[in-house]
Amino acid sequence: MPLSATLAAAHFTQLRPRLVAFARLQLRDATAAEDAVQETLLTAFEKSATFEGRSEFETWVFGILKYKILDQLRQQRRQGTWQPLGQDLDDDTLDRLFQQDGHWQSAARPSHWGEPEQILENQRFWQVFDACLISLPESIARVFTLRELMGLSTTDICKEIGITETNCWVILHRARLRLRECLDHGWLN
């Protein structure tokens, strides 16, 4: 069912801070993030009458933002302002978590967090998750958010940012390890 302009505007007001936070995380540039969000809100507002409710309104708006972010990344690449992934992927996390033979370090074994459904409904968990995601190095955060939050395939990620598929999987693995470690410290302690 189409949304009224008043209802859409109310949704946009609520969504805007989350859209900006997500765009900043991906683009790592406040001005570019604001531009992407403004374009997203304008597009969503102009097309709100055509929203049919086949998904949540928020999901629909974030889908628009996803394409605006990809457009920004492509534009940065064309203008020469895009920064490719650096080589800041050190092995510190792997050394802290795993022994030479690949087994977990005793102190680094994953902790039990509780029931997944309950955790995902807990606002504190998401606050810690956001803080952990923001603390990731830029290159790792970019690949992780493209894959896990924006839903791009590894093939598309590799094409967009110019890395090999093997490198993409390594980066995703390291992102998950760092997030798990951060969540263990921030969520459970």
UniProtKB/TrEMBL annotation:
Keywords from the named record: DNA-binding, Sigma factor, Transcription, Transcription regulation
Domain of life: Bacteria
Domain RNA polymerase sigma-70 region: 12-78
Biological processes, Gene Ontology terms: DNA-templated transcription initiation
Record GO terms (molecular function): DNA binding; sigma factor activity
Pfam families: Sigma70_r2, Sigma70_r4_2
Position of the signal peptide: none
Record InterPro entries: RNA_pol_sigma-24-rel (IPR014289), RNA_pol_sigma-70-like (IPR039425), RNA_pol_sigma-70_dom (IPR014284), RNA_pol_sigma70_r2 (IPR007627), RNA_pol_sigma70_r4_t2 (IPR013249), RNA_pol_sigma_r2 (IPR013325), RNA_pol_sigma_r3/r4-like (IPR013324), WH-like_DNA-bd_sf (IPR036388)
Family classification: Belongs to the sigma-70 factor family. ECF subfamily.
Entry-linked PANTHER family: RNA POLYMERASE ECF-TYPE SIGMA FACTO, RNA POLYMERASE SIGMA FACTOR HI_1459-RELATED
The protein's name: Putative RNA polymerase sigma factor
Native species: Vreelandella boliviensis LC1
Organism taxonomic ancestry: Bacteria, Pseudomonadati, Pseudomonadota, Gammaproteobacteria, Oceanospirillales
